[in-house]
Amino acid sequence: MEPIYLDHAATTPMSNEVIEAMLPVYKETFGNPSSVHSFGRKARQHLDAARRVMANSIHANEKEIIYTSGGTEADNLALIGTALANRDKGNHIITSAQEHHAVLHTAEYLEKQGFNVTYLPVNKNGKIDVQDLQKALTDETILVSIMYVNNETGIIQPIEEIGELLKDHQAYFHTDAVQAYGLIDINVKTMHIDLLSVSSHKINGPKGIGFLYADDHVKMNPLQFGGEQERKRRAGTENIVSVVGFQKAVELAVEHKAERVETYQQFKQLFLEELTNHGVEFQVNGESQEQIASIVNISFPGANVEQMLTNFDLDGIAASSGSACTAGSVEPSHVLTAMFGENNPCTTNSIRFSFGIFNTTENVKEAAERVAKIINRLI
């Protein structure tokens, strides 16, 4: 029985083109990009070329791209770095109750440092209300962090409206775009986004590399100290091999964006249709029209998350109960709790399925058939 991977929101397999782009660098480019000799300059050329590609992908300036170890570090740098650097302007931060833990746990840390944090609620469709944000803003607000696409439900947040609201406010606007990047057109300048986090392994690139876009005007403290890499904002010798792989993944994502969106939407529709055809009772969590193409979060009334995931795995289906960072946890999803309230059955009977470039019409249909068989047996 062929295993079928439907957990691309957790991580994606590296594409063959990315691997091929990285191999020569492993063999030939070992210089330190901070060195002035030819070996260092060769490494620097790779670093600079990749930075230009990443900046262009979001319509930023290449000097505004900071390489990080991934989305978590980018989120930490965005929140802690700007909060500490701008404390003289205020100590109020706004985020939402359904953020990734990389943001939520960072916000909790900042609360311990004396900052006041407002956690905006989300409605049953999985979106924040921009009016709630407007009401929460004060003269003390220095940072607003709202994710672009929720990693559990795939719901797209009103980022453009938020940017428009904040453009004349002192607060910096950060968005965790880890799930949006590569599938949604992003222009950080016209959308008035000051800080934006991206992770390579969500777009078929290598793990351990990401970037933080920080607009030139953003005042931000570094979180680690050492050399003067990344314009003194992120010390440490850059990971050239992973940067090159990340660059290739970005290039492929940009080139095939429209095609991938259409394909994933077809996969999602096929998957849901097959469940219906096999008599499975389910509901999609969140407003489907506001959902990114690659993710669908499904509630199966009467089912249990752990039991479902165990049986899926035994039948070769890889899916998730929510954030990969809480895999193995028996606690209800904080995202679905924010949407539906505590003790709602959806918080413990919902599964996230997410599609990627290695899925096919055939294996998506097969996966739906296996899932339907399991659900009908369990309930």
From TrEMBL:
GO molecular function: cysteine desulfurase activity; iron-sulfur cluster binding; metal ion binding
Cofactor section: pyridoxal 5'-phosphate
Residue ranges of every copy of the Aminotransferase class V domain listed in the record: 4-365
Enzyme Commission number(s) of this protein: 2.8.1.7
Domain of life, source organism: Bacteria
Keyword Transferase: yes
Keywords: Iron, Iron-sulfur, Metal-binding, Pyridoxal phosphate, Transferase
Catalytic activities: (sulfur carrier)-H + L-cysteine = (sulfur carrier)-SH + L-alanine
InterPro entries in the cross-refs: Aminotrans_V_dom, Aminotrans_V_PyrdxlP_BS, Cysteine_dSase, PyrdxlP-dep_Trfase, PyrdxlP-dep_Trfase_major, PyrdxlP-dep_Trfase_small
Family membership noted in the UniProt record: Belongs to the class-V pyridoxal-phosphate-dependent aminotransferase family. NifS/IscS subfamily.
Protein name in UniProt: cysteine desulfurase
